Amino acid sequence: MNFPLMPPQASEHAVAYDALFWTITALTVIFTLIVGVMIYGFAVKYKRGSSADRRNAQSHNEKLEVLLLVVPTVLGLAIFAWSAVNFTSVRTPKKDEMELFVIGKRWMWHVQHMNGIRENNEMHVPVGQPIRLTMISQDVIHAMYLPAFRAQYHVVPGRYTSLHFTPTKPGTYKLLCGIHCGTQHSEMVGFVHVLSQQDFDEWLESGGNRYTKADRSMEQVGADLWKEKGCGNCHQGTDNNRAPSLNGIFNTQRTMTDGSTVLANEDYLRESILRPWDRISAGYENTMQAYANSLSEEQVLSLIAYIKSTGSGATPGQGEYEQPVRDGRALDSSSKSTIDIANDRASAGASQAKELTN
Amino acid sequence: MSSHESTHPDAPVVYEQFEDIGQQQETYVLGMWSFLVNETMFFAPLFFVYGLYTWKHHADFYLAHALLDWRIGGINTFILLMSSFAVALSVHYAQKGRTRAQLNCLWFTIACAAAFIWIKLQFEWIPKISHGVFPNPEFIQNYPHYAMEHGVPAADPYKARLYYSLYFAITGLHALHVAIGIIVFLALIYLIKKKSSLITDYIPTEMVGLYWHFVDLVWIFLYPLFYLMPRP
Amino acid sequence: MSATVVDKTQEEGLHEPHPKKNYLTADHTIKSWLLTVDHKRIAVLYLISTTFFFFLGSIAAAFIRAELTNPMGTLLTSETYNKMFSAHGIIMVFFFLVAVIPGVLGNFLLPIMVGARDLAFPRLNLLSWYVFMAGGTCFVIALMMGGVDAGWTFYTPLSSLYSNTPITLALVGVFFAGFASIFTGLNFIATVHKMRAPGMTWFRMPLFVWGQYATGVIMILGTPVIAITLLMVAIERMFKIGIFSPELGGDPVLFQHLFWFYSHPAVYIMLLPGMAVISELMACFSRRPVFGYKFVAFSSIGIAALSFLVWGHHMFVSSQSVLQGIVFSLISFLVAVPSAIKVFNWALTMWKGSVHFTTPMIYALGFLGLFVVGGLTGLYLAAIDTDVHLTGTYFVVAHFHYVMVGGTIMAFLGGLHFWWPKMFGRMYSEFWGKLSAIIVFVGFNFTFFPQFILGYLGMPRRYHYYYFAPEWQVYHVLSSAGSTVLGIGFLMPAFYLTASLINGKRAGRNPWGAKGLEWEHADSPPVTLNFDKPVVVTGPVYDYDAEKDSEMIRAGQRLVDMVKGEEEK
Ligand code: HEA
Ligand code: HEA
Ligand code: CUA
Ligand SMILES: [Cu+2]
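^ thats the input. predicted complex w/ heme-A below
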């Protein structure tokens, strides 16, 4: 029998995390010992009938109380400051992050790479590359929990949340759901595969090995949707009287009819597509249809990816579309169309359980 | 509980856990205030949620609120203010020992409370509910028609449903308090008439009055929040 | 506490003397129990009902632990498992821990300790028990309808739209239980403010009363919030309105804010009464006044006040902003300080004392040790960064069992053993008492310490199995084995305490030689209106003399030695 004491330390943050964790542990041990020794010492020394000196017993001492007030406060604040610094750094997006999209649904994780590769309950990432997960849930609240990276964040329906980490060690790690989400919560588990850059490139090259082969990147899927849904009928290369242009709109400040401004981040774009009437852009009316019932979360993500890809001023609209080249990797577009094979598998978690125990 | 009957017929009943009537009354008043603090916290989350969503969906809530008639709400506000005044008077008369006047004031309060509920039902709830403008899944279909009938532009039905959910929840809870108030007032009048030994001074009236002022106060917040929403 | 008894009865001719019957024997009909307004009888009713709920919740715990011994989870289905931990959590929190100390010890002792004949509103008190039972009944019916599966936290939209279990009924049950606790709180506040006996100034009140008072304040301010919030969830379930469900336009995180706005203060509703008990035990069995009385008293109020400002520490990773999280983290560290003050003051109470190792005292010392570990592990969770990895894992489970079981239940058992002779007039077997205290302590650590490690390793809570990590099994097995020991420890008092009712030695007024109105001026068991004569308090609280107490023992010992010496000659 072995007694594991630490989860693998596989991200940059894990190291900083463990330093803090074990410091608090030291503090805990020290204080437990102090209290323990006090109790034991007093109990033995002043046991009823012992001959200890009981004269001049005080039952209050202001100086001592102040000391008892100050020492824990100071120690506590020190720990707090350390942890706040750590937390701020881990929540701040890094430069050159590779973005992955995650959709949580009962009860599986659905991961989509920028270039269109999709995975279920698995996630392949290259070592040393800062990763950003942009996550949303299709139903209830889940939590993306990656113990080896000391990373966790809730995946909430109706809004995007993000998780940032930089894997440092190749290997396979657990990917868990950290919030109770119903019957098969404990089967909403999978693995993160941290690959060396070379392996990762190969993996990409083969279009993802496991369940599904992608032929189109997310932007392409988005562009097709754009055509299919006729967004370009209104949203054209420049602002016109029908609708504002969406070129390069991502992360810009938009002005609303009531004069307020909002940052056009993912949440805003999503809301503008699903429920455009929530906030109307200045100069326009609520003529756009609400797509809340006709687009899935995944499709919305693709559309957003597409809108983001117009950052450089390409003209979305007339149906022309320049294929964005990401990281210099073009994709083989001849393979067969995307089918979510894994979706057919009733419960990926349970089947993995079998694989594991076999 | 057996109470100490005392020799004097008009002497107050002191429950056995109390030393004297003074202590008993102080305790009751303190208990009432604590209860009102508790009531405040009871309404607080509803107001908080309402405030939050108004801030978030101001435009739609503004459209949705057009279906509420500020005049009816205003009349109801006036009625409640009158009733509060009457309660204050009845405490005053109770202190003076003028039972007749006190009872009249209480009857007037009850009339006001009943009128409040009647107006609420007759002009606000029943018309809406009978048109299906009640926060259930059908609301989404029914609401736009209803708005059209009334000649006001419809808000996004989902937002409107949220608005009316909160409207029914908060005004419903408030109306429940009004109804309880009526029952309590009736009981009070009955006991006073019966010359019950439970009521020998003004304290019971004052306690019921405190409760009633609270109910009134809730409405004073409700009315502008729901009926007099500022243009976004 | 020294007090002179002035016979006001005769002076004023107001209260007739009562026949010498205690509250248990005053009347024997069932009706006299079910319609009683005597705070002591209501306390007994609460004792019976909370014990019932504790064992109900424990059976669920037993199933949870049995299931987790195997990584493949072969005993229950996922569905049943989820219902088990939900039932366990809901029962233990809402129908046991929140009610137990205020309901049993608080109801029984608070009026006696301030020298009152009853609580301020006895009928409200009886209503509180009925409302509590109504809530419990609703929940038990929900259990019989199959049970609910959304956990005790009822997170939306799982609870409001997705779960197809009788959640509405369970919510109504919790709603009622909330009102029971509001009524209790109202009663405590009014009683402490207005019903104190002459001479019972605020700073002559036993710390038990301070603790219950602070609890009452939280109950009044916090409980209505959860009541209305759960009502909103119920309405959302019934009418599909969109307050908390994003599909309908609501905000799921809003629910969490409202829920924790109550439920964090609620953990102090569960803990403060326990701390209140410990103060009494430490004083009595050290034969010393509680060290730093005023600091301990005000720290209760401090905890109550700060507890309303830290709810966000349950939501560090639930999409609140970084700044929000950091502020909540900061305040969470501050709320730990009053607890620290209490712990050290309790330990210092033994200094130069005369320590008696009785059953209640062993429970109290166990409390100190376990609460320190539980509280300090709370700091890992309050530190925003360390929480990111630990939230939603068994580390949290271990933390809260250390504070709730190791803290509050140890305190409750200590208090129950301490005041048992007062409540029922009988002594239990000290041998079995001490044994059970030790078994509980040992079993507890075996059960929950491994869970800290499990949590750090990444074992998420509410997991039915862990087929993906068989290496965790060893800790789960340890934990389950420990829980068997713990279970035995918890069952023992049920037997020997019941036995003591039948064949226990009569206790007499003050078997522990303790100070306090309940010991010095009330019979065991007390009479219906507590005191034969009205009390007037003239001296300070905790008027113990450790030196004399130990000297007495030594004198006794010398006597024994002398006798022995004589015999040997
Ligand atoms: C009785 C109940 C109780 C009590 C008293 C506490 C006490 C504390 N709790 Fe706990 N807590 C729970 C019950 C309780 N908790 C429950 C039920 C949950 C989980 C809910 C759920 O999700 O289901 C929870 C979860 C929980 C979380 C959220 C974890 C998560 O889900 O991510 C956090 C985070 O901050 C936390 C913190 C604390 C802190 C800082 C204290 C402090 O009050 C502790 C203070 C005590 C001490 C610090 C020890 C004594 C001090 C010393 C010996 C001196 C040394 C001190 C210093 C150096 C500062 N608790
Ligand atoms: C007062 C509160 C309280 C108490 C006393 C306990 C007591 C115990 N709890 Fe509980 N626990 C909670 C409050 C409490 N718990 C809460 C709030 C949760 C969170 C729920 C949620 O996630 O929603 C939780 C969750 C929880 C979990 C996590 C489940 C999960 O996340 O998957 C576990 C797992 O080990 C556990 C174990 C135990 C054990 C072993 C005991 C032991 O102390 C119990 C000891 C008793 C026995 C072992 C049984 C005694 C024997 C009998 C009564 C006879 C039994 C008869 C038969 C079996 C036929 N508890
Ligand atoms: Cu998804 Cu738990
Ligand atoms: Cu908390």
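The mean pLDDT of chain A is 79.
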